[in-house]
Amino acid sequence: MLAEKKYYYVTVDTEEVREVSVPDSGIEFEIYATEGQVEELRQLFIKRNKRAVDASNYVHKPFDEWGADEERASYDKYMVEIYRKVYELGTARTKEKINELGIIN
Question: Where do the structural domains in the chain lie, given as residue ranges?
Answer without folding.
Answer: 6-101
